[in-house]
Automatic annotation (TrEMBL):
Entry keywords, A to Z: 4Fe-4S, Iron, Iron-sulfur, Metal-binding
Assembly: Composed of 13 different subunits. Subunits NuoCD, E, F, and G constitute the peripheral sector of the complex.
Family: Belongs to the complex I 75 kDa subunit family.
Ranges where the 4Fe-4S His(Cys)3-ligated-type domain occurs: 77-116
Annotated protein name in UniProt: NADH-quinone oxidoreductase subunit G
Annotated Gene3D superfamilies: 3.10.20.740, 3.30.70.20
Location of the 2Fe-2S ferredoxin-type domain: 1-77
Keyword Secreted: no
Species the sequence originates in: Enterovibrio gelatinilyticus
Superkingdom field: Bacteria
InterPro entries: 2Fe-2S_ferredoxin-like_sf, 2Fe-2S_ferredoxin-type, NAD-red_Hydgase_HoxS_gsu, NADH_UbQ_OxRdtase_75kDa_su_CS, NADH_UbQ_OxRdtase_ferredoxin, NADH_UbQ_OxRdtase_Gsu_4Fe4S-bd
């Protein structure tokens, strides 16, 4: 069923129950996200895609569109909420962008640019974490994990369907863990896919890392907003 809704004053049509974040992008309106992957189940963990739906703040990846819906993406208060959420992700970990292997291709870094973040309004926590080198193929740099859970939900053993990654603990004690036996069975292709699926530089392929050196900062040349709309044929 085709329905009509309004996004930032623009009337658009969509199929009922489509995800709001997809409908917005299909109509040239970019909403940042760090956990959502188009075509995959919604996680709703990062909340960075928050916008105002019928006057109430909601994560747009979790919202199915409906007829007559009124959405505000770029009104000032909502933009500042998204910026604050990104700032909190930066202070909760240790994101040293100049020395990070994913600098220039990092989704968190790109969304920081997109939201206009220069420095966080929140105090930095400087958590003490421990990298995990046990796998023969994967290095986990826990400093950078933002607990988006993409790896937990979308990276699985291809024979058994078992999860290779999981989140252990809660709150400040939470950390990303890896099933070493399953990780060691992963093909090089699957390890690369996991590394690219991670929005930050937490999952790294041992001995290789990324095929392009640090410094090819694609999001400084072209914004993540432009890349997202181009990818979807807009």
């Amino acid at each position: 069923m085709t329905i009509t809704l309004t996004i930032d004053g623009k009337e658009v049509t969509a199929e009922e129950s489509q995800s709001l974040i997809d409908v917005a992008l299909d109509n040239g309106i970019y909403i940042p996200s760090l956990c959502y992957e188009r075509g995959k189940p919604c996680l709703g963990t990062c909340r960075v895609c928050t916008c105002k739906v019928n006057g109430t703040n909601a994560a747009s990846c979790t919202v199915p569109v409906s007829d007559g819906m009124v959405v505000e993406v770029n009104e000032p208060e909502t933009k500042d909420i998204r910026k604050a959420l990104v700032e909190m992700l930066f202070v909760e970990g240790k994101h040293n962008c100049p020395s990070c292997e994913k600098s220039g291709r990092c989704d968190l870094q790109a969304v920081g640019y997109e939201t206009g973040m220069m420095v966080s309004r929140f105090p930095y926590r400087f958590p003490v974490t421990q990298a995990d080198f046990r796998s023969e193929k994967i290095w986990l740099e826990r400093d950078r994990c933002i607990f988006c859970q993409r790896c937990v939900e979308f990276v699985k053993d291809r024979e058994t369907g078992r999860k290779i990654f999981n989140i252990d603990g809660r709150g400040t004690n939470a950390r990303i863990e890896i099933d070493v036996a399953l990780a060691d069975k992963m093909s090089d292709e699957q390890v690369t896919e996991a590394m690219e699926l991670c929005p930050v530089g937490c999952i790294l392929k041992k001995g290789v890392g990324f095929d392009a050196p640090i410094g090819r900062r694609k999001f400084e040349v072209e914004s993540v907003r432009e890349r997202a709309t181009e990818r979807d044929g807009k």
